[in-house]
Amino acid sequence: MDMALLFKFQKDFLAGCLDPEIDTAALSVPRGNGKSWLAGHLVSRILNPSDKLFAPGTESVLFSGSIEQCRIVFRFARKRLEPLGGYRFVDSATRVAITHKATGTRLRVIGSNAKTSFGLVDTPFAICDEPGAWETNGGTLLYDAIATAQGKPGSPLKAVFIGTLAPAKGGWWHTMIETGTHGSTYVQSLQGDRDKWDQWEEIQRCNPLSAIDENFKRKLLEERDAALADSRLKARFFSYRLNIPSADESELLLTVDDWQKVSARPIEGRTGRPIVGLDLGAHRAWSAALAIWPNGRTEAIAVAPGIPDIREQEKRDRVPEGMYQKLVDKGLLQLAANLRVPPPSLLINWVREKWGVPHAVVCDRFRLAELRDCSLPCELISRVARWSDASFDIRALRKIAKDGPLSVTEESRPLILASLSAALVENDKQGSMRLIKRGTENAARDDVAAAFTLAAGEFERRRARPAIGTYGGLV
């Protein structure tokens, strides 16, 4: 093994990865920093009889998003092994493999197909390249197949994941990196600081190979300058060059800058009666209420099912351990004891207890009949799920966030931020918008964001009709 070829972050990762107590290792760094080369380096060691990682007669596996993607790692490994002699290499349209002929020790290459990945027995290593690019559902199944193959008697499988967090949005790969090193899992990552994203020192810290490659350095600087002028390119720069998964700002309900403006405004007291947006979930989803007072003061609460318990809900939604429990502890999230679907009355009673009688409640038509049975002592406005109304509501929220008067109480911020991270804005070619979930995971908590847009839309509609009264009839 030629350690001189490795950068410090690569040496550190191999040291952690190859610790005997570790069975799962993950490295996440931006694109262009030798991830596939490092995976190929590890493959070459596994198949080299003179290396301590060599286990005669075993079969290790290489997973990637596709067979074509696997070839990148395969060719790095082949370049190191071929001069040694004694290997058979297969590189066809449908098969990629390496076999050490004298011992039968081999590498089998598989795309992200869980159906061909069960039965990993007597497999010392599973090298997993760019898991962020794996097909969403199939990739999750593949990860489950690898994880459940670990710990089998007589088959000490070590799984090694190497990749950038993008392009995947959420899911098991992000959760693994966010959770960090624990137990038998070792995690190492390089991610940029959003506040320093355009500073060369920060860009170079996240892209160590730029120190030895002038072309790479020049490319990074060009992309940085382009990102300063174009939010779409800024999102791509964040995702691929700083390893901070980011949507195009047009896809975000509120940008980081918008949220900072909201957070910087002074919090006024409760004056008058609020507009309350409701989003009622079913099954795994939460039900949420968000109140906006005439002066822009904003508070939020949510109700989650009591079954399964909150820890199981965290696991199901693949969020960091304790995330939902902290919201419960802060009094922002209430659990519907012994229920899988919280009744609307539970949320409505909490709204009245916490905020009094609202000026108006606005909701979509889902579970509208149940909501009417709650005998609300105020105007109830239901919205049809139309692109035009959704577009108005989203634009209204962005407007009062950017220009005021929107301000969010400190105690409500964790709940709202958790929801904003689970929601995206879908844009059509006609300029219309609607709120959608961010990927297949994190399905529960986007309801607060939905309630936010409903409340903001009604708030702006009433502000546009001053003849009704002060603050558009909000008092």
Write a concise synopsis of the structure shown:
38% of the residues lie in helices and 19% in strands. By secondary structure, the protein is an alpha/beta fold.
SSE inventory with pairings:
Blueprint: H1 8-17, E1 24-28, H2 35-46, E2 59-64, H3 67-81, E3 87-91, E4 96-100, E5 105-111, E6 125-129, H4 136-149, E7 158-163, H5 172-179, E8 185-189, H6 200-206, H7 214-229, H8 231-241, H9 256-264, E9 275-279, E10 287-292, E11 297-305, H10 310-317, H11 323-329, E12 333-336, H12 344-355, E13 360-364, H13 368-372, E14 379-383, H14 387-403, E15 407-408, H15 413-420, E16 423-427, E17 433-437, H16 447-463, H17 470-473
Parallel strand pairs: 1-7, 1-8, 2-5, 2-6, 6-7, 9-13, 11-12, 11-15, 13-14
Antiparallel strand pairs: 3-4, 4-5, 9-10, 10-11, 16-17
Helix pairs in contact: 2-3, 7-8, 9-14, 14-16
Describe the overall structure.
- With 475 residues, the protein is α/β, with parallel strands linked by helices.
- The chain is built from 17 helices and 17 strands.
- A hairpin with a 4-residue loop joins strand 3 and strand 4 (96-100).
- The radius of gyration is 26 Å and the shape is elongated.
- The N and C termini lie far apart (74 Å).
- The relative contact order is 0.10.
